[in-house]
Structures are given as structure tokens and as C-alpha cells.
Design brief:
single chain, about 250 residues, alpha/beta, Arc Repressor Mutant, subunit A, 2 domains, 5-stranded parallel sheet, 5 strands, about 50% helix, about 10% strand
Amino acid sequence: MGCHRTPATRRASAHRVRAAGRTAHVTPIRVVIADDQKLVRAGFGMILGAQPDIEVVGEAENGTEAIRVVRAARPDVALMDVRMPELDGLAATRELLIEGPVGRHVPKIIILTTFDVDDYVYEALAAGASGFLLKDTPPEQLVEAVRSVAAGDSLLAPSVTRRLIEHYVASRATEEAPPQGMDELTPREVEVFKLVARGLSNTEIASELVVSEATVKTHVARILLKLGLRDRVQVVVVAYESGLVRPGAER
């Protein structure tokens, strides 16, 4: 398996080569799919491989293989199932994002999960995953998720994401202390921080605060810089852990 290219993937790649001028010079988003179910890998691979701006560059059926394939293929995005044999997706995510060697390639990781069984979702977010996706997500949402994460966004907008985050963070003891650097935020940035933590998109925040989406993006960038956070997922983790935002709070 590893970086083996399936016939469907090769056909999709050939289609990209023949694509019209507007996509011919676009560097495709490189994706690795790690899941112990062959049908899941095949299905996701066909959906993603059919897109002109996405290329599936590898597959893995367990966490150990996922680490090897990601390091060899150097994808932009890795889809990682939580529960896999040999090494689970959480351990593989930690190894790739936190514990690996200096100078390693660091992809964006999307955790694949089912809503009611995975106990590791919160830990995966804390380990640095860019978000998570239900395995039965519609094809168009899968494609959009890969594009969004590759562009630097996080998968926080869907209501299911908020429920999952609230459930897993609520099960952990929180420290009633503001995150380091919080006192450096302006009152407006604090507002934006809390809205991001509750799962609102930039568009929703702009509507809530009656400002432009560009202004919201600027606020978010400054918040991440001041608090030393990598992305919006970490905003959620920090906000709930510190008690600044509580599960079930009104939007």
C-alpha cells in the first residue's frame, strides 16, 4: 500500500493534466488517507482524486504505516482515523505534529471519527489536529474540508463539531485561569476570541459584531499571535480549558 497509486487515482491525475488552463498551473493539494477500512480509503480516495485541485498521494491502514507514508509523501493534508490497529490515530497524530524529529514535515491533520464512539477527539485536537470529520460526511463537505484545512482554516463551523468539543472538554477538569497573554487582548479581540471558541465562522462573527469579514480575519490573526496559538482549534481548547467559555453557553 503506502504510496501506491490506485487506477482511480491515476485516472484522476491524468484528468488534471488535461484540465483547462485555469487549473493546469495550480499546485494540487496533496492528501494521505489513513484508515483501517479499505472501503473508506477507496471511497474517500475516489471522491478526492476526482477533484482537479486535489491529489491523493498515499494511503495507510494503521498508525505506524500512516507515519511512514506521511513522512515519505509529505502531504499537505492527512485524513487520520482515530481507531486503527498497531498504533491509533491519536498516537500517530502526536508523533507527526509534536514528538517527531526536528525539521520534520508537518501536515495538517483531519481526524476521521464517528459521533458517538470516539473518546479521543479532544485529545487529538489538543495534540494539534486541525479538526475532525464524520466518516459519513457528504462528498462535497469532505472536499471542502480538505481545501479549508489546506488553506489554514480549521474544521469548527459545523454544529456537530461544537457538540463534540463541548462534550469532551466538559468531561475534563478545567483550570479556572485565563490563558497566558489574555490580558494583551483588546476588548474587541476578547469578544472575537469567545465567538471563535464557540464555533462561529468568520462570516458569522462579522454578522454578530457588525463588522467586515476582513476585520474579523485581522482580529483572529492578532489573537493567535498574542496567545501563541497555532489555529482556531487551539483557541477552542484553551477557551474551554480555562473556563472562559463553558459547554452549553449561549452563542
